[in-house]
Amino acid sequence: MDDMDWTVLSVLFENKNITETGKILRISQPAITYRLNKIEEEFEVKLFHRGRKGVFFTPQGEFLVNYASRMLKEFQMTKQEMLNFENKIQGVLRLSASSIFSRYKLPKILSEFSKKYPLVRFDVLTGWSEEVFNSIYKDQSHVGILRGTYNFSAVKRLLMKEKLLIVSKDPINLEHLPDLPRIYYNTDTSLKTLMDRWWSSHYADPPSISMRVDNMETCKELVLHGLGYAVLPSILLEENEKFYIYPCLNKDGSSVVRETWLIHKEEYQSNPIVNAFCNFLSEWTF
Description:
Layout: H1 3-15, H2 18-25, H3 29-43, E1 48-51, E2 54-57, H4 59-84, E3 91-98, H5 99-104, H6 106-116, E4 120-127, H7 129-137, E5 143-147, E6 155-168, E7 181-185, H8 189-202, E8 208-213, H9 216-224, E9 230-233, E10 244-247, E11 257-264, H10 272-282
Helix pairs in contact: 1-2, 1-4
């Protein structure tokens, strides 16, 4: 088997039709059938059965399709690394980043990076910081950008710090905060822990949760319409928005801050694309 055989298997499995596979790959139907027959002869198995609605893969065929998918991925990664040996900053940067950072910071960063390195393409995953961490651990991404405190044994660089803020449409008395309606939002474990620690260090009573929503942006809009206060990271707030803002403070009077980190495994230190991106971010003004 070679890379074309892997591609034929993967495309056929996705489309379940030999004619459609030929159109996608621009290969004649007899040529595809010949390749499939040769694969069956090589492994001495039946890959699929034909039916009215297309082809149906046998268990052995599905196993071989999974192998082909893995090999195609490895092949593409190898081609990328071979390009990098020429010391040209080109190829694909596999990047994962927290959803909030991806919305408020990442588009401009990638736009400016593309101007400097136009031959680099991006494969971006977004999600909660736990998901970013897992994508790096499982080698699904070269580089991750996550928010909060995580134990990571490889390369870890601090990108920015942001304050945690109490946000309200109208003035509020912080001493009465437990009695005021608070809008709560789902977020990652790191931020939940940070907010809970701050709250428990200042108040004996739990907050009065009036609403629960699924994300920070919805929460901010509800606050803007006077439906309660919220505890939000400063990255969400813009200068022209009309909020009353109070910093969350530690017992010593310092601001409670949330950190954003860039992480990647040691083996990617020598990757020219990763190296260029890390150096680019080290010069970026957040």
